[in-house]
Design a protein that fits this description.
Blueprint: E1 3-4, E2 13-14, H1 17-28, E3 33-34, E4 43-44, H2 47-59, E5 65-66, E6 75-76, H3 79-90, E7 95-96, E8 105-106, H4 109-120, E9 122-123, E10 132-133, H5 136-146, E11 151-152, E12 159-160, H6 163-170, E13 180-181, E14 190-191, H7 194-205, E15 211-212, E16 221-222, H8 225-232, H9 237-246, H10 253-258, E17 271-276, H11 281-285, E18 289-294
Antiparallel strand pairs: 1-2, 3-4, 5-6, 7-8, 9-10, 11-12, 13-14, 15-16, 17-18
Length: about 300
């Protein structure tokens, strides 16, 4: 939208210059197109509105469309107004679908036009694709499944369904990640997402956990509604199966930063691996150090 409104405090963009010019009139209140008919002083912001005014008020003075039902004889300026009126006599919506074998009625032309697309179908406009959807929703679904290009991270080549998911993921590759500090006095805790910060404030500082699991025998409580929704999967075997299918093995921070993928081995039960960063050598090499602590 290269044509931007330069009126103070606006900044709206438009694809055509005349769109911007027309929009500017809403700020100035100017109506440059005046009616030239005798005794009429009305003014309009666009030529099209002036033209409609002349056609309705000054050219079609005589009511042309007369209801032919017995004892009625009401007249209207527009044919559509007559058709809408006649449905009171027939008890049927005035606009009928003329496709063979259909015969459905609709109350407005726009609804009829939208219905007729069912007979025509919504053809995919992509090259070498012959798909025709019965509804607009079906076409959108087809485009999403068949023609959407994968959104790929240029660092690790992981794919995502949405651009905002990729943007959030790319923060994991940054040398220095932006963090949000808890605003409460004397706390000093930091988080990488607004959600985690909000959850911390509500649960830790305000000691509120208003969302409780109503599964029999559970009773766990959560500070955030989304946390409860994620927890509910534990009690739903079907959702849990889907989660297990889609889940990937969790890699350590050292593995993700260095690019090294460790072999698949069973972890020892008597060993705990913790990660710690040193600001000199670790940040210089972009690889965190790993400490191995043996449980006594």
């Amino acid at each position: 939208r290269p044509y931007v409104c330069d009126y103070e405090g606006c900044g709206k963009g438009f694809t055509r210059d005349f769109h911007r010019t027309r929009h500017l009139l809403t700020h100035t209140g100017e109506k440059p197109f005046g009616c030239t008919a005798d005794g009429c002083n009305q003014k309009f912001g666009t030529k099209s509105n002036l033209k409609k005014h002349i056609e309705r008020k000054h050219e079609n003075q005589q009511k042309q469309y007369v209801c032919d039902f017995e004892g009625c004889n009401k007249s209207f300026r527009k044919h559509q107004q007559l058709k809408v009126h006649q449905c009171h006599h027939t008890n049927e919506p005035p606009f009928k679908c003329n496709n063979e074998g259909c015969g459905k009625y609709f109350s407005t032309p726009s609804r009829l036009k939208r219905h007729e697309k069912i007979h025509e179908g919504y053809a995919c406009k992509k090259e070498n694709c012959s798909y025709i959807g019965k509804t607009w929703t079906e076409l959108l679904k087809h485009n999403k499944e068949s023609h959407t290009e994968p959104i790929v991270c240029n660092e690790c080549y992981k794919t995502f369904k949405r651009k905002d998911y990729l943007k959030q993921h790319q923060k994991t590759h940054a040398v220095e990640r932006e963090v949000l500090q808890c605003p409460r006095e004397g706390c000093g805790r930091t988080y990488t997402t607004v959600f985690n910060l909000q959850s911390h404030i509500v649960s830790f500082h305000e000691e509120k956990k208003p969302f409780s699991c109503d599964y029999p025998g559970c009773g766990r409580v959560f500070a955030m509604k989304q946390s409860l929704a994620r927890h509910a999967v534990v009690h739903d075997p079907e959702k849990r199966k889907l989660n297990l299918k889609r889940s990937r093995p969790r890699r350590s921070l050292a593995s993700r930063l260095s690019g090294y993928i460790p072999p698949k081995t069973q972890p020892r039960k008597d060993v705990v691996v913790t990660e710690s960063r040193t600001r000199d050598k670790a940040m210089e090499n972009e690889i965190p150090t790993v400490e191995i602590l043996t449980l006594q």
